[in-house]
Design a protein that fits this description.
With 92 residues, this protein is mostly helical. The protein is built from five helices and no strands.
Length: 92
């Protein structure tokens, strides 16, 4: 039996919060925020109407606590977020 050499992968991937903010402030990040927010605003209330899922204890608690409205508000805030200070992009 012939063995193939294994490729090594990094043991972990570290992403700093600043890198995430930089990405979300970019044009691609704005698109990702907009699409994700639209999916949550439209999808989460629809998911909460599925009878099988409504019986799940976690979704019952979310419904009682106004979870749908909270998720929609979070999605809208994510969509509308803009950095307060300009984020410097280092191009090497």
């Amino acid at each position: 039996m012939r063995t193939t050499p294994r490729t090594t992968q990094p043991s972990r991937i570290a992403i700093r919060a600043e890198e995430i903010k930089r990405f979300l402030a970019s044009d691609t990040g704005r698109t990702v925020r907009r699409v994700t927010a639209a999916g949550l605003v439209i999808g989460f209330p629809l998911v909460m109407r599925i009878p099988v899922l409504r019986r799940h204890p976690i979704l019952r608690v979310a419904e009682l606590l106004g979870g749908v409205a909270l998720i929609v508000k979070l999605a809208e805030a994510m969509r509308d977020w803009e950095p307060r200070t300009p984020i410097r992009l280092d191009v090497e």
